[in-house]
Amino acid sequence: MKKLDTRLYFITDSNGFTEEEFLYRVEQALMGGVTLMQLREKTRTTREYIELAEKVHQIAVKYQVPLIIDDRVDVALAIGAEGVHVGKEDMTVAMARKLMGPDKIVGATAKTVPWALEAYEQGADYLGVGAIYPTTTKVKTVLTSTETLADICRTVPIPANAIGGLNKGNIDILQGIPVGGICVVSAIMKADDPKQAAMELKARAEELKLI
Fold first, then answer.
1. For 117, what's the count of Cα atoms within 13 Å in the CB-facing half-sphere?
2. What pLDDT was estimated at residue 20?
3. How far apart are CA 182 and CA 126, in angstroms?
């Protein structure tokens, strides 16, 4: 049975950290109330990705937070992760679903309503929609309006999460939009205290009735 709580979706970024410090920050974030976590590694070899994913998964299991692997179905299957997230340049949602099976989580990126509908019809369990704001992570970003986000949230019956440059000081832009939750990278990953940052972000989102 799938466990899917997308309210506070934490996406990792190991750039600039030693492995020890990275794993510490991951654990602190989970202690702070993260409900779903994605391991995103764009530059590691397959072996390196698997080795790190195994260590992150051990922490995720400890806190009963599902681990999603970005892009790589092979890595997700190799370590027994709870799910995978695919973007437009990765394999299709339908293929990811076929390989992962019916009981795993498959997430997808969506920037338009037709794109969101296609992902849903192919078997996606949730969507990541954005970027709402410019981001500091080293990924290509195309900004998505809050109007488009709202349209997507109201069109598909699965959780649609806002992503892109979000932090506790600017998430009020999402107020009134029926998002499934918020996705953050830097707001937690680069915080002085990742646990405190996660707690404050979650509290602010609850205050705004976003989650």
1. 7
2. 98
3. 12
